[in-house]
Specification:
Distance between the termini: 39 Å
Number of helices: 4
Organism: Methanosarcina mazei (Methanosarcina frisia)
Strand content: 15-25%
Protein name: IS1 family transposase
Number of domains: 2
Order of helices and strands: EEEEEHHHH
């Protein structure tokens, strides 16, 4: 827990700063967690997101940078709940009726989530050099785990 002086009032923050890093590629601390260089600058928006500042390069970034929630005004839980309804309802129109969100909004969230999932998958599954047998073994393990 960190203590912050805000407008002469002492407040506490439950943010674990060790989990964040500077997003500025020109910064010497770029991409490195737990350097002690990230501080809370302020809270903003109706979702009360944290705006962080890197003490090294003085650049600011949102706590949602690099997530599907970046630059969205809808609460994170609502976006997740709506996206999770898609397989259940089977259609974007059905989800729109159930949630009250427009089809265009749901499509935009789905596109953002799909792009993010593709980027994460590409990052983690790069240069694995697996043989077909190894891939089959992984899938066998996954299927076996689901039955338990």
């Amino acid at each position: 827990m960190n203590l912050l002086l805000f407008g002469g009032i002492l407040i506490t923050s439950e943010i674990d700063f060790s989990q964040f890093f500077c997003w500025n590629k020109d910064c010497t601390d770029y991409g490195i967690k737990n350097q002690g260089n990230i501080v809370l600058k302020e809270r903003y928006g109706k979702n009360n997101h944290a705006l962080f500042k890197c003490k090294t390069c003085k650049k600011c970034f949102s706590e949602t940078k690099g997530t599907i929630f970046f630059e969205l005004n809808t609460p994170d839980e609502e976006v997740l709940r709506t996206i999770a309804m898609l397989p259940e309802k089977g259609s974007i129109r059905g989800v729109a009726r159930a949630t009250g969100h427009s089809k265009d909004t749901i499509c935009r969230w789905l596109e953002i989530a799909g792009t993010h999932a593709e980027e994460v998958t590409t990052y983690f599954l790069k240069n694995l050099n697996l043989t077909r047998v190894e891939v089959d073994e992984i899938w066998s393990y996954i299927k076996k785990s689901k039955k338990m």
